[in-house]
Amino acid sequence: xxxxxxxxxxxxxxxxxxxxxxxxxxxxxxxxxxxxxxxxxxxxxxxxxxxxxxxxxxxxxxxxxxxxxxxxxxxxxxxxxxxxxxxxxxxxxxxxxxxxxxxxxxxxxxxxxxxxxxxxxxxxxxxxxxxxxxxxxxxxxxxxxxxxxxxxxxxxxxxxxxxxxxxxxxxxxxxxxxxxxxxxxxxxxxxxxxxxxxxxxxxxxxxxxxxxxxxxxxxxxxxxxxxxxxxxxxxxxxxxxxxxxxxxxxxxxxxxxxxxxxxxxxxxx
Amino acid sequence: xxxxxxxxxxxxxxxxxxxxxxxxxxxxxxxxxxxxxxxxxxxxxxxxxxxxxxxxxxxxxxxxxxxxxxxxxxxxxxxxxxxxxxxxxxxxxxxxxxxxxxxxxxxxxxxxxxxxxxxxxxxxxxxxxxxxxxxxxxxxxxxxxxxxxxxxxxxxxxxxxxxxxxxxxxxxxxxxxxxxxxxxxxxxxxxxxxxxxxxxxxxxxxxxxxxxxxxxxxxxxxxxxxxxxxxxxxxxxxxxxxxxxxxxxxxxxxxxxxxxxxxxxxxxx
Amino acid sequence: xxxxxxxxxxxxxxxxxxxxxxxxxxxxxxxxxxxxxxxxxxxxxxxxxxxxxxxxxxxxxxxxxxxxxxxxxxxxxxxxxxxxxxxxxxxxxxxxxxxxxxxxxxxxxxxxxxxxxxxxxxxxxxxxxxxxxxxxxxxxxxxxxxxxxxxxxxxxxxxxxxxxxxxxxxxxxxxxxxxxxxxxxxxxxxxxxxxxxxxxxxxxxxxxxxxxxxxxxxxxxxxxxxxxxxxxxxxxxxxxxxxxxxxxxxxxxxxxxxxxxxxxxxxxxxxxxxxxxxxxxxxxxxxxxxxxxxxxxxxxxxxxxxxxxxxxxx
Amino acid sequence: xxxxxxxxxxxxxxxxxxxxxxxxxxxxxxxxxxxxxxxxxxxxxxxxxxxxxxxxxxxxxxxxxxxxxxxxxxxxxxxxxxxxxxxxxxxxxxxxxxxxxxxxxxxxxxxxxxxxxxxxxxxxxxxxxxxxxxxxxxxxxxxxxxxxxxxxxxxxxxxxxxxxxxxxxxxxxxxxxxxxxxxxxxxxxxxxxxxxxxxxxxxxxxxxxxxxxxxxxxxxxxxxxxxxxxxxxxxxxxxxxxxxxxxxxxxxxxxxxxxxxxxxxxxxxxxxxxxxxxxxxxxxxxxxxxxxxxxxxxxxxxxxxxxxxxxxxx
Lengths: 269, 269, 314, 314
Ligand SMILES: Cc1cc2nc3c(=O)[nH]c(=O)nc-3n(C[C@H](O)[C@H](O)[C@H](O)COP(=O)(O)OP(=O)(O)OC[C@H]3O[C@@H](n4cnc5c(N)ncnc54)[C@H](O)[C@@H]3O)c2cc1C
Ligand SMILES: Cc1cc2nc3c(=O)[nH]c(=O)nc-3n(C[C@H](O)[C@H](O)[C@H](O)COP(=O)(O)OP(=O)(O)OC[C@H]3O[C@@H](n4cnc5c(N)ncnc54)[C@H](O)[C@@H]3O)c2cc1C
Ligand SMILES: Cc1cc2nc3c(=O)[nH]c(=O)nc-3n(C[C@H](O)[C@H](O)[C@H](O)COP(=O)(O)O)c2cc1C
Ligand SMILES: Cc1cc2nc3c(=O)[nH]c(=O)nc-3n(C[C@H](O)[C@H](O)[C@H](O)COP(=O)(O)O)c2cc1C
Ligand code: FES
Ligand code: FES
Description:
The complex is a heterotetramer, with 2 copies of chain A (269 residues) and 2 copies of chain C (314 residues). Chain A has 269 residues and is of the alpha/beta class. In chain A, 20% of the residues lie in helices and 28% in strands. The longest helix of chain A is centred in the last third of the chain and has 13 residues, at 178-190. Chain C is globular and about 50 Å long. With 314 residues, chain C is an alpha/beta fold. Chain C has a single domain (7-55, 74-198, 220-306), classed as Aldolase class I (TIM Barrel), CATH 3.20.20.70. Chain B binds chain D through residues 26, 28, 178-179, 182, 243-244, 246-247, and chain D through 65-66, 221, 311, 313-314. Bound molecules: flavin-adenine dinucleotide (2 copies), flavin mononucleotide (2 copies) and FE2/S2 (inorganic) cluster (FES) (2 copies). One flavin mononucleotide (FMN) sits between chains C (21-24, 46-47, 68, 70, 72, 74, 100, 128, 168, 195-196, 219-220, 223, 246-249, 268-271) and B (210-211, 269).
């Protein structure tokens, strides 16, 4: 979906997202959906293109929007992908609609003289996003689908090690579902290269006030904190994000329930 | 608004209404709006035309519907206007969008050889519904607007006595806001002729299950009951509807709070 | 292959778990214009009172976001007319009747229970405990465990032994489980959860309460999270007690949500206003949802969301 | 001509009646990206606890019809970090701070009240009584009049005399007026109504609770009828006591609804998630709504819907 949004288009940096509101005024759906920005273009003073999955709650309403309808979106939000000053070899990994977030990054990296190799995948061919564009832009573009309907049969993470090796990758960038990011980060660690992963499902406010989107992340000081992926992410260094503990409060996290904190009651507000 | 609804078109009798649902699936607006049927036509297997006021909650959503969108409506509902077998002189009084309910009635009355005189009004010219059609169909058509922007300055009830006299009216039919129906009924009583009034604002279910739409009505047996205007109305005999007691439970109504019934608690469910 | 939809309210078997909620399905005649009411698991009657009641003044209902406020005040014909007209009509249709009763005192409840179960025909007696107690300055029985238990003990003693007594509870109490326990200890065979939640709306243009009665009961999808929570908590505490879940069920998915929380039947209220075909539609959707999940008997889904969770890596 | 929007929380004057609700406006820094937070009547902080808290596991929020369920569990930095970082930042912006406090025991509340009011800077202390009491097996203080009063008495004694103490109450009690009276008798200068309502949702596809914490608090327009009702009842019973009304306010009309019911200020919670500009927008809409009705001072609208009604013929 493409919208005219000059202010967002102007300020956007790769990895950032827009938080969109669905259902219109008086909608029974109150939370925003964070969606990766796929493209920004100078047309009509600045347009922003984003991709949404067909099963996103509110997707039906979004799909019904027509030309010249207005849409309520806030952005660009979040911390962008860090882009190295010097040319390096970058492997960009995307799954499903998460791939959408990678093309502007590739553009920026290539402007700085970096080499870009793509690894894109999805459950099936029709859900692979941007395969053509990846082929056009990337030094190489490796595709993987779980049903084998496009490229290799399997997951992006199955082919990733080979790609890193072949491309002599210096860094991995990824955007996709959490389970995939976890494997990507692990693969990067095996190769002893850094990974920058962008988490994808941000539902809440997108602006840091609702505290929905926290993840256990290890800080510079070695202390784990529950940090908001909408403002302190969506991009994290792969080795800082404690994937195994997502969905929990690790016992050693700052402020985790322990001897000192108040007990957790059966219904706390 | 015109919709294709053969089953409603086929069964419709003047005075009946449709109960429409606004906002689509998952809408935060849960109640139906009862709207007078303006016209039914044989096109496309049977279409139904109804009118809704611009300030109806949900009017914005209704106005946004486009050709071929589907709409959820139930009808025809309610008891129709009784139509005399023999030709008589009928005065049809409508206010605002309530006028919409009168044209099919006029048609039916004229088919039976009755004479029809219209009295239509609204706050201002742009809110008078069907003035042209009334002029075409009626023996006479008297228009009244509160600001004088069309026809006589004043309310329909100001001009009604003169029309009844001129037309030698045998019966008055009316559809419009409650306060107007009340005066219409009073005028008819003064002329010692019957009035048939159709109440207009029915919000709830339209099918008799929610008990929202009750009015105090005197039955054949002389006992006042709180009756549902969606199933026992929307058409009532003017002299049976206790206009002065609308919005109350008259002390002499069947089951009114009294010596025998349980007390009314501060929050009863 | 379609799922086996049968369910039980205590020893009473119903062909399917979709009921109308009290006061939301009329006498049954209104809905029978649209479908055969014997297709319902059961029809729950409006709360029957001893004397006829004219109800509260209008406006009686107001729309709120995803909700409806009502202060109908149990307009109804009284127990005599119910027994001579409405109940026989329902039985003649082959429908099952859950009969809701409401009284201002224990004595009224007892009288109603006796009168209604003298003859066969009532499948289940549902005791509306949200009714204001005349003896406690209009405070609803359901606000207090001992007041609730007192009514249930008396109703259980007065009603025919083979008619199960279900206590219908209010959600706006700090501890719904305590009230539920007290009712079950007092002899209730089952529980109905939840009644409406006291609410209010103001017509901002008129600067007046939107309802003539000022406050009213909130129903509809807005309150579904309260219903799910109450059913969940009570089923966790009293897993053997049958629960009729209700509150904001508009679709088969919503009905399934309450069943997964622990309800063995689901009553549909406000949805009947929005869609006269709501009950048969919800039944069909529920059946499809179960089949799609490979669940062959509706009964298997009851309380399923309580099973201990294997922590999955996400 | 624009309306005079000033209002008072006890003796504290605010430039306008629109506040953020506790836990819904972050530390203020997040919203300051969008507008100057000194334009708020006040910013209410998340409930401050003695120790830092990591909060509850995710998923922490779920969407329900016109509502949001949350079980964030008051993630926060603890009182020390609040005093050294968040509060000075707010004051530096020229913003006013209503500081919400939460403790598991009376002693914790006392410690918090002391620490926070030792230095000036706190405009109002809001006592979150929905917090589970460690001394009463996790039952919230707000469920019980005497437990609430005990906390308020102690906080009032511990806090600086010139900092008004507001008691924030839960709506899910049979008689909110009784709790309100007890708090005012115990020394509360005002009341905040309402906190979230305990609710739950089940992910029907996973057949699991949607929240990691199973139950959560319901907020948003779904609960506005409860908020209006509580504000109305408490204002009717205690007309002189200032009330901060909140619950489901999304627009200026909604804010006006609570003011007409008796609130002298309105806090905006969930709407901040939906629209980062919610507070300034609601303030503007409220001002327009007042002006359109010929009301020159916001204060004149407080409780206006309570005026006796001349019965109008309809
Ligand atoms: C804001 C938001 C809210 C949403 N809320 C809901 C909701 O409430 N309910 C709901 O049903 N859906 C919800 N969705 C939709 C859902 O999260 C995804 O959008 C949906 O799964 C489809 O996305 P996808 O096509 O990218 O496929 P995905 O399921 O995201 O997967 C894409 C590909 O990632 C790769 N992958 C997956 N797992 C691994 C792994 N472990 N290792 C390596 N690779 C892997 C595979 O190649 C897979 O095919 C929501 C989405 C968004 C954005
Ligand atoms: C289902 C439904 C729900 C609605 N809910 C709301 C709501 O919640 N809030 C809201 O603001 N609006 C609501 N409305 C809108 C409102 O009821 C009317 O639709 C609105 O007043 C405009 O209708 P109208 O143009 O017919 O003018 P009306 O106000 O209906 O009046 C038309 C004309 O009737 C005549 N008339 C009026 N009073 C008298 C009298 N005493 N004697 C003689 N003649 C008289 C006058 O000529 C007047 O100009 C609702 C409407 C419907 C159908
Ligand atoms: C108009 C209306 C009338 C009701 N009348 C009764 C009643 O007489 N007795 C009763 O126990 N509950 C009554 N209820 C409550 C419903 O039975 C049900 O518990 C509640 O509405 C929640 O379900 P819902 O959200 O599906 O409507 C009534 C509800 C409504 C909306
Ligand atoms: C995510 C979230 C966090 C909240 N945190 C607190 C809190 O820390 N302390 C408190 O007293 N209330 C808290 N609340 C309750 C709100 O302050 C407010 O009372 C409630 O949400 C109703 O208002 P709303 O419908 O405008 O959100 C929180 C609400 C939400 C949604
Ligand atoms: S989405 Fe609300 S804090 Fe991140
Ligand atoms: S509108 Fe529901 S009973 Fe008439």
